[in-house]
Write a structure and sequence with these properties.
Blueprint: E1 7-13, E2 16-21, H1 32-47, E3 53-58, E4 64-65, H2 69-77, H3 79-98, E5 103-107, E6 110-112, H4 113-121, E7 124-128, E8 132-134, H5 137-140, H6 148-156, H7 158-167, E9 171-172, H8 173-178, E10 184-186, H9 191-204, H10 207-217, H11 219-223, H12 225-238, H13 243-253
Parallel strand pairs: 2-3, 3-5, 4-6, 5-7, 6-8, 7-10
Antiparallel strand pairs: 1-2, 8-9
Helix pairs in contact: 1-3, 2-3, 2-13, 3-4, 3-12, 6-7
Length: about 260
């Protein structure tokens, strides 16, 4: 797995592969390369018999600040790019769901966009108390596709999902644990330690029993597949419309968007 450019991969413990989203100068924002790699790596993980569990985290004090604005602008301009990113966005979700190895996410700082999809789709998610989880799609001017429709209603209920997805209301790690959005909340300085501890326990367990239990439980997510597919299509339809241009400019200007 050494060919990955924006993902650092190493062995964190016996049988535990660590995947680090690495773009520290930009809070681990995901560009074209990083987006493609987040879609592909789960197939490699699934095929590697040495991997018994995975820890995924961001480099430094952030998980991921979401999609790179230049990537979004290229999607707005070019249909071929838009379709390629659409396929990758679908693969990120389904490849994490279908990966037979247990995945533990260590969520520190901001967690947004494609990185957030991986963080919340992980089998066990460990968040720091001050972590900031945001699904920012509607603020950008597009539908909440990505991963939201497949996992938020199941984890925290439809009422909470609507509140946070329609308003882009941030969720701290403490709030996320209270509403069932993450598995566990710990002090910020213990996030990586706790995630590795859990992954090590999973790696030491019965690989077959854990794999088959994960498969059975993830059928709940597979049942939501049609809702996810529709939401993702609606999101990418939005990249052809007028609102996203204002949304992107508002992010660049660090101001609230003014949709008309």
């Amino acid at each position: 797995m050494k060919h990955y450019e924006k993902l650092k991969v190493d062995w964190a413990a016996d049988g535990v592969l660590r995947i680090v989203i690495s773009e520290p100068r930009r809070l681990n924002a995901v560009d074209m390369t990083g987006h493609r790699e987040l879609a592909e790596i789960w197939r490699d993980v699934d095929r590697d018999d040495d991997v018994r569990a995975v820890v995924v985290r961001g480099e430094g004090e952030a998980f991921s600040a979401g999609g790179d604005l230049s990537m979004i602008e290229e999607m707005m301009r070019d249909h071929a790019t838009r379709m390629r990113i659409f396929t990758e966005a679908r693969d990120i979700v389904y490849n994490v769901v279908n990966c037979s190895k247990p995945v533990v996410s260590a969520i520190q700082g901001p967690a947004v966009g494609a990185g957030l999809a991986v963080a919340l789709l992980a089998d066990v998610s460990v968040a720091g108390r001050s972590a900031k989880i945001i699904d920012g799609h509607t603020r950008l001017g597009v539908a909440a596709g990505d991963h939201a429709a497949i996992v938020w209603p199941l984890l925290c209920g439809l009422a909470k999902a609507k509140y946070h997805l329609l308003l882009c209301e941030p969720v701290t790690g403490e709030q996320a644990e209270a509403m069932g959005l993450v598995s566990l909340c710990v002090d910020d300085d213990r996030v990586h330690e706790k995630a590795l501890e859990i992954a090590s326990r999973l790696a030491a367990g019965s690989a077959e029993a854990i794999r088959l239990t994960k498969y059975a439980l993830n059928n709940w997510l597979r049942l939501a597949g049609p809702s996810f597919d529709a939401s993702l299509a609606m999101e990418f339809l939005g990249f052809t419309g007028p609102d996203v241009a204002e949304g992107v400019q508002a992010v660049r200007d660090k101001r609230p968007p003014r949709f008309t």
